[in-house]
Specification:
The protein has two helices and six strands; from the N terminus they run E-H-E-E-H-E-E-E. With 111 residues, the chain is of the alpha+beta class. Strand 2 and strand 3 form a beta hairpin. The longest helix has 13 residues. The chain binds ligand 2BA.
Length: 111
């Protein structure tokens, strides 16, 4: 069994959860924040049997299309990653798509 940890854009998350549920996969949705943009994103935990991995990856790929976006990146100076009053600067970032980690699950227990 694998645990898929997928970090996706908030705007893609509802559709992705719907698609996963519709296809019978269990999913947990977490509200998270990206370290670079300091903006909300969504992390999904999806436990899946090994042979279903590629089907789940296909759903993620189909729903989470990447696109380019200009954004104001925060200054990364200072101990907490930003200095009060420091100017932000515009950067082009690729958003959407998905950042996916796949972990092997030792045990899956429901009590
Ligand atoms: P953020 O850290 O907010 O990053 C959002 C997007 O900003 C990134 O998209 C990337 O396109 C851009 N970006 C990140 N760091 C950058 C930098 N130093 N300079 C220029 N552009 C930069 P993704 O790479 O698709 O990442 C989307 C979200 O996935 C990230 O949000 C973060 O929450 C998570 N993530 C990405 N890589 C990760 C990792 N190695 N470990 C844990 N979480 C990760």
């Amino acid at each position: 069994m694998k645990l898929i940890i997928a970090i996706v854009q908030d705007e893609d998350s509802s559709r992705l959860v719907n698609q996963l549920m519709k296809n019978g996969y269990g999913v947990t949705k977490l509200a998270t924040t990206g370290g670079f943009l300091r903006a909300g994103n969504t992390t999904l935990l999806i436990g899946v049997d090994d042979e279903k991995m590629s089907a789940v990856m296909k759903i993620i790929e189909d729903v989470c299309k990447s696109r380019k976006q200009m954004t104001a990146a925060p200054s990364t100076m200072g101990s907490m990653g930003g200095m009060p009053g420091a100017a932000s600067y515009p950067v082009e970032v690729t958003v959407g798509g998905a950042t996916v980690f796949v972990l092997t699950v030792d045990q899956f227990i429901k009590l």
